[in-house]
Fold this sequence. Notes:
Elements: E1 2-5, E2 10-13, H1 30-33, H2 37-49, E3 53-58, E4 65-72, E5 76-78, E6 83-85, E7 87-94, H3 96-133, H4 138-170, E8 178-181, H5 182-199, E9 203-208, E10 214-217, H6 219-235, E11 242-249, E12 255-262, H7 302-312, E13 317-322, E14 326-334
Parallel strand pairs: 9-11
Antiparallel strand pairs: 1-2, 1-7, 3-4, 4-7, 5-6, 8-10, 11-12, 12-14, 13-14
Helix pairs in contact: 3-4, 4-7, 5-6, 6-7
Amino acid sequence: MFVVDHTLSIHYYNHLAGCLNESVAQGMKLDQVLQDPAILQIVYDSIQSSKPLQGRYDKGTADESWKVYVTPLAHRVQHESATSYLYFAVAIEDMAELLRLESAQRDFLANISHELRTPLTSVRLLAETLEDAIDTDREKAQTFVEKIEIEVKSLSGLVSEILDLSRIESGQMPMVIESVKAEQLVHEVMARMLPLAQRHRVILRTSIEQGKNLVAADSKQIARVLVNLVHNAIKFTLSGGMVVIGTSLHMQEGMQNFFVRDTGVGIREEELPRIFERFYKIDRARSKADFIGPGGGGTGLGLAIARQVVKAHGGHIVAESKLGEGSTFTFTLPLFHSINPPMSLLP
């Protein structure tokens, strides 16, 4: 925000104006601070017409999109032929975040429509086939009923994960923060996921380097994160491969590392920056033919939920991978003694 006179001399500016030019100061000319002819032209036109004007200014990318408002202020002088305003407010609004949110909303609606349409179409077709078979072939009809149940379960899981993600992002999901042994979390998830690993002939091991530390965590939510990471690791690791779940020393004081490492097919470099996005799914052709879970490839929300849960705990999650060599997902949690948490909190 700037307040200028008809000569473009700056009489006022707010602290955000320093983002445009660090050397801004009262008495400077606006064209010394802003070098963009399109913006200056709007200011010139408003001064000459004594009318409020606004315009859009883009530098060709969504990261640099501004909306400019120029408004004559109440201070004015009366001449014989017209009224001349003494001061003009120049407001520049950064639209990049708004555009990003609008794009995210469009992507969300498109993705959710796609994810819901596929199982709903399957349910409709199965129901139509069931109607024809129910009186003529009871055994076949029962098969269709079971398939409908799988698709409905998939839909129910999708809706549940969308609601959970929404609650976490909006801070509506309460978390009970307790002191939990890092190694305890690893062992519990190991025991829970071992039958799945054995069924898919994948070796599941633990590696606890720094596991006796107490971390501040909602054990249920962090177990959910680890289960999701191990589940994905098994899904993308061929039979005979290995998945390791464990803890390691974190260089930052007061934090504990958790990791899930696999010897699977890996993730392409260009996909890594997007894997924590809602509904983003890596190439299905790289995973085993027998996808785990109802509906096949999952909802595409698991990693997005994992990121939000870890973030709500004050940690962060990252992924490293080499195509054909495997992937490692690592996240951090604060040590219990490094904070003084309430027993129950909202993220």
